[in-house]
Design a protein that fits this description.
Keywords: ATP-binding, Nucleotide-binding, Phosphoprotein, Transcription, Transcription regulation. The chain has 4 domains: about 120 residues, Rossmann fold (3-Layer(aba) Sandwich); about 150 residues, 3-Layer(aba) Sandwich (Rossmann fold); about 80 residues, Helicase, Ruva Protein, domain 3, CATH 1.10.8; about 45 residues, Orthogonal Bundle (Arc Repressor Mutant, subunit A), CATH 1.10.10. It has 19 helices and 18 strands. A hairpin with an 8-residue loop joins strand 13 and strand 14. Helix 6 crosses helix 7 and helix 17 crosses helix 18. It is elongated, with a radius of gyration of 27 Å. Bound molecules: adenosine-5'-triphosphate (ATP) and magnesium ion. The site of magnesium ion has 4 residues, from helix 7.
Length: about 450
């Protein structure tokens, strides 16, 4: 029996909720719930999980983008579609950057809605096919050890699955720490070569003299110290995959030897005459701009084209910020279990800082920072004091306001306090929620309860 996809539809216009529910809810593949405001949507999600949230963009109090960011930080696994009647691209771009999966124009065309849902479901199925066993029961998306459910990552997963079926040479580019090595091993793991060796070598770490003998092997007596015949990596990886990391750093001589292998499919050991057939899939990675290096004649252009049969670009973390909460959770679990620590989560303030930082070192930097914080943290929650100064000072949203919440326990005091904070933060709801140290959804709920609205 297939489980129905749970959809939460959010719109302040009841008519839209009714129409949506009637039409999409009639399909047994879907279970539709509706909410008339952002606060109601967040309330509903607490009790009734959803796979997909479809939300209007312009709603009073909490708009679609605010709801989207709130859902992304609380339930990163949910897919979000934005509805907008305003085709001004700036709002749509903002929503997409905040992690919306796609957007739909209002008044909506049901065929479009169904197509978007179908795309999400097929992406989900593609990921599920590559899910790590330990993630099958979890809510997070893990494709062969790669974490992320931003659209850019789905595109990478799809390319990995496609290219894995072939023996084509793959060039993976991307900044340092973006997961190039994980992508390479995912290609191997999904390919028919998976039971054969996956051998990797960091080309930058080998001297000019060593690299040829490492790659191609040598015959006994080929050079001083070659006391016996040695198989090179091309032979060791036979039938499997050879991953040449930092390929941008190989010397012109090695570039010629590699080109030869790629053109002829054969090689010879150093000092040998026997021609050996190379049965390996080659995957190369670099954080250099190899195309530019080829244009500037720093890297052989012919080799560049041979290596770049299929190219995969690992996106920088700042271009998929919506994955940050997911990665934080993942690294937190990983380092807690490695270090025997019990930490349940990250405070809202700390998560905001983590989501706003630009991550020049990408996932590796995030992993290191969480590991450091886990090791040195004494409490059950990571707060912003456990983050290094470069992250704390990158806070774009802090304000100098400090509050004593000790008196804010009674309803009237609470209402007065919220009103004061809203005024002091110029009715910037995000800032007010941060100052009050409550979730934005809670703030909206309380504003509704105490009838607090921005004066016009
Ligand atoms: N999508 C991801 N999900 C989970 N962990 C990731 C992801 N991307 C990178 N990492 C983690 O970040 C670290 C760096 O990843 P990796 O070595 O694959 O990056 P790289 O692009 O090869 O970096 P470099 O260019 O410096 O060699 C590793 O600890 C890896 O587990
Ligand atoms: Mg690497």
């Amino acid at each position: 029996m297939t489980v129905a996809t749970r959809i939460l539809f959010v719109d302040d216009e009841p008519a839209y909720c009714r129409i949506f529910s009637k039409r999409i809810g009639a399909d047994p593949r879907f279970r539709v719930e509706t909410a008339g405001s952002g606060a109601e949507a967040l309330e509903r999600l607490q009790h009734s999980p959803a796979d997909i949230v479809i939300t209007d963009l312009s709603m009073p109090l909490m708009d679609g983008i605010e709801l989207l960011s709130e859902i992304k930080s609380l339930y990163p696994q949910i897919f979000i579609l934005i509805l907008t009647s305003d085709d001004s691209t700036s709002q749509v771009v903002k929503a997409m950057k905040a992690g919306a999966y796609d957007y739909l124009l209002k008044p909506f065309d049901f065929e479009m809605v169904e197509r978007s849902i179908a795309t999400i479901l097929s992406h989900k199925a593609a990921v599920q096919a590559g899910l790590c066993p330990e993630c099958l029961s979890g809510e997070q998306y893990c494709f062969e050890n790669l974490i992320g459910q931003d659209r850019k990552m789905f595109e990478i997963y799809e390319m990995i699955s496609q290219v894995a079926q072939t023996s084509a040479t793959v060039l993976i580019t991307g900044e340092s720490g973006t997961g190039k090595e994980l992508i390479a091993s995912a290609i191997h793991a999904k390919s028919t070569r998976k039971d054969k060796p996956f051998i990797q070598i960091n080309c930058a770490a080998l001297t000019e003299g060593l690299i040829s003998s490492e790659l191609f092997g040598h015959e006994k007596g080929a050079f001083t110290g070659a006391v016996a015949r040695k198989k090179g990596l091309f032979e060791q990886a036979s039938g499997g995959t050879l991953f040449l990391d930092e390929i941008g750093d190989i010397s012109p001589t090695t570039q010629v030897s590699l080109l030869r292998i790629l053109e002829l499919g054969t090689f010879q050991r150093v000092g040998g005459t026997e021609t050996i057939k190379a049965d390996v899939r080659l995957i190369c990675a670099t954080n250099r701009d190899l195309a530019a290096a080829a244009r500037e004649k720093q890297f052989r252009e012919d080799l560049y084209y041979r290596l770049n049969v299929v190219s995969l670009q690992a996106p920088p973390l700042r271009d998929r910020r919506s994955d940050i909460p997911l990665l934080v959770r993942y690294f937190l679990e990983r380092y807690c279990s490695l270090n025997n620590k019990q930490i349940d989560g990250v405070t809202r303030d700390a998560m905001t800082l983590l989501c706003n930082y630009d991550w020049p070192g990408n996932c590796r930097e995030l992993a290191n920072i969480i590991e450091h914080a886990v090791i040195f943290s004494r409490g059950r929650t990571l707060d912003k004091d456990s983050l290094p100064s470069q992250i704390r000072t990158s806070d774009r949203h802090s304000s100098g306001l400090t509050l004593n919440l000790a008196t804010a326990t009674l309803a009237d005091a609470e209402s007065a306090l919220i009103k004061k904070v809203l005024e002091e933060s110029n009715w910037n709801l995000k800032k007010a929620a941060e100052l009050l140290d409550i979730a934005r959804g809670t703030l909206y709920g309380k504003m509704e309860k105490y009838h607090l609205t921005k004066p016009v």
